Amino acid sequence: MSTATPGSGLFDLSGQVAIVTGTSRGLGQYMARALARAGADLILTSRNQQSLAPFAQEIRDLGRRCVALELDVRDHASIQRFAAQAETALGPVQILVNNAGCNVRKPALDVTWDDWNLVLDTNLRGTFFVAQAIGRGMVQRGYGRIINIGSVTSVFGYAGLTPYCASRGGVKQMTMSLADDWGKHGVTVNCLAPGWFKTAQNQVMYESQEWVEYLVERIPAKRPGRPNDLDGAVVFLASPSSEYVTGQTLLVDGGITTGSTRATPKK
Questions:
Q1: Cβ(44)–Cβ(32) under 8 Å?
Q2: What is the DSSP letter of 153?
Q3: 201 contacts 26 by C-beta, under 8 angstroms
Q4: Residues of the chain with pLDDT under 50
Q5: What pLDDT does 7 receive?
Q6: Cα→Cα distances 207→106, 180, 210, 256, Å
Q7: Cβ(266)–Cβ(208) under 8 Å?
Q8: Please, which residues have CB within 8 angstroms of residue 120's CB and are 6 or more apart in sequence?
Q9: Alpha carbon 222 to chain centroid distance?
Q10: Topology of 17-255 in CATH?
Q11: Residue 106 and residue 158 in contact, taking contact as beta carbons nearer than 8 Å
Q12: Which of 30, 143, 158, 164 is catalytic?
């Protein structure tokens, strides 16, 4: 697939097909909207295909083709079925956003064997095998954009999030390995790492005003992330403009990973 010439359609995704996994709610839906507005047709996924019907219609109302497919990233057979369906649903896939994920919040001493397996199987193993299944066609065609969703926990550790931090750190390392593996085939692989965004997964934390104030003190932008803050980053990494960007972790975190804290204490 040819790329755009400088200054011509560098962020235009018209005619491309994008998969966004885990789009029944949350940031996955916002990223899918951003790609659709940039011109991409969408394949949406969830373990419950029917739950995607309203959102799929919303994407079609933007003037894009859209299909919803069932995918359980913890089930290898489900991944293989999905990949076969995805390659024929709307035509060859150029963009994959590996967004499906989960979390278990517990003190490290309370984490169970099953907790660990749930988070790692979903966030790390699932991300790899979806990338492998969809990346196979990209490699054969000589073009692709894979965006693995990481987190600020890809580079920072937080108490009560041990399995999640381990999984997101693994996504960062895996991204670099895949980028090295597939770069010669015209496939870029990057990690998009949001900071602290309010989503259904972590909404309970934002119910504590004390915690929100603690968080905002450490963010140079002085606010948590808003879902649309990811729009530009996901379109950039999915577009021809990022042709020479691969193996990178793009933190969209308001600067929290600078280690910022309030310069002067409260009086």
A1: yes
A2: G
A3: yes
A4: 1-8, 267
A5: 42
A6: 18, 42, 9, 20
A7: no
A8: 163, 166, 167, 170
A9: 24
A10: Rossmann fold (3.40.50)
A11: no
A12: 164
Residue type, 12: D
158 catalytic per annotation: no
- The phi, psi pair for 266, rounded to 5°, reads -65, 150
How far apart CA 154 and CA 251 sit, in angstroms, is: 9
Local structure of residue 3 (DSSP, 8 states): P
On whether the CB atoms of residues 158 and 177 are closer than 8 A, the answer is no
Residue 111, judged by CB atoms within 10 A of its CB (0-12, 13-18, 19+), counts as: middle
CA distances from residue 5 to 11, 188, 243 in whole angstroms, order as listed: 11, 18, 11
Give the phi and the psi of residue 10 in degrees, each rounded to 5: -65, -25
Q: Where are the domains of the chain?
A: 17-255
Is the pTM higher than 0.85? The answer reads yes
Q: How many helices (H) and strands (E) does the chain have?
A: 9, 7
Token readout for 143 is 């073009």
Cβ–Cβ < 8 Å for 250, 192? yes
CA dihedral angle for residue 14, residue 15, residue 16, residue 20, rounded to 10 degrees: 70
Residue 236, amino acid: F
DSSP H stretches of helix in the chain: 27-37, 53-61, 76-89, 113-120, 126-141, 162-182, 203-206, 209-217, 231-238
Q: Which tokens is 123 given?
A: 């966030």
- Taking the C-alpha atoms of residue 154 and residue 55, their distance in angstroms, rounded to an integer, is 29
Radius of gyration of the chain (CA): 18
Sort 203 into a burial class: Cβ within 10 Å, 0-12 / 13-18 / 19+.
Answer: exposed
Which helix (H) or strand (E) element contains residue 29?
A: helix 27-37
Helix or strand holding residue 234 (H, E): helix 231-238
